[in-house]
Structures are given as C-alpha cells and as structure tokens.
Amino acid sequence: MKRTLKTLLATAAIASAALGLAACASGGPTSVVGVWGEPDVPGLPSLEFAADGSFSGSDGCNRLFGSYTVDGSTVDLGAVGSTMMFCEGVDTWLVNGATARIDGDTLIVSDAEDTEIGTLTRVAD
C-alpha cells in the first residue's frame, strides 16, 4: 500500500511539473504591466501599463492615457483619452484600441468590434 501511494505521489509531482513547464512554454498570459512598443522612436506607437491600473503612451503622434482592467487574458482599455494633434504620415491606429491580449511578448490590440488593429512588442517589465 505504501509503495502505491509513493508511486501515485511521484506521478502527480511529475505531471504537475510538466503542466507548469507547458504553461510557461505556451506563451500564455502574463502581466501587462510594463512598456510595449517603441516609446523612444518618434512616429511609432507605444503603451506603458502601470501596476495601479493606469496606462499612458503615444499613437506615434498624440499622447494616450487611461485606465485598464484585466479579466483573464483580456486587457480592457476602457475610454482612451488622447491629445488631438494632426499627424501627417503617421498611422494613429492605437487610439482606436478597446481591448488587448498578451501572446508571449506581443500585445495584440483590437478595436471595439474586436477586430485586430495592431501589435506592440514588450520592451520592458
């Protein structure tokens, strides 16, 4: 009986470790807190998410700001505030972001119709 229990516990431990490693390798959701995009490159979009639930950034021209919530793997950007400068030659897609999801080091941004409108790469935690 003791041998069976030890075997069962060892099997459970191995299975648990394997599941943990699989979750890490799958690129599953991680914390959104950090810097996404290229904040130091003029004309390129970026967002910085703070631990207090606020975010700020740029669509490549205009400053963006707001509050976010996380529900599972979905980041709800709420009402995105923005300055309103005219930006010739800059694709200001990020201002239309409504939600996002994390896939590894990529933030996939979608609009209010849940259509993917762009991606940002994590550059710092």
Structural overview:
- The chain is α+β, with helices and mostly antiparallel strands.
- 19% of the residues lie in helices and 36% in strands.
- It contains one helix and ten strands; from the N terminus they run H-E-E-E-E-E-E-E-E-E-E.
- The chain has one helix at residues 2-25; strands at 34-37, 46-49, 54-58, 63-67, 69-71, 74-76, 81-82, 99-103, 106-110, 116-124.
- Strands 5-6-8-9-10-1-2-3-4-7 form a ten-stranded antiparallel β-sheet, with no helix packed on it.
- Mean pLDDT is 81; it is low at 3-29.
In short:
By secondary structure, the protein is of the alpha+beta class. It has one helix at 2-25, and strands at 34-37, 46-49, 54-58, 63-67, 69-71, 74-76, 81-82, 99-103, 106-110, 116-124. A ten-stranded antiparallel sheet has the order 5-6-8-9-10-1-2-3-4-7, with no helix packed on it.
DSSP summary: helix tally: 1
Provide the gyration radius in Å: 20 Å
The computed structural class is alpha+beta
Kindly report the average pLDDT value: 81
User: Which regions have little confidence, pLDDT < 50, spanning 5+ residues?
Assistant: 3-29
Strand arrangement within the widest β-sheet reads 5-6-8-9-10-1-2-3-4-7
* Biggest beta-sheet profile: 10 strands, antiparallel
Task: Tell me the helix content.
Answer: 10-25%
Number of strands: 10
List the helices and strands in order: HEEEEEEEEEE
Q: What percentage of amino acids are in beta strands? A: 35-45%
- Label the overall shape: globular
**First-last Cα distance:** 49 Å
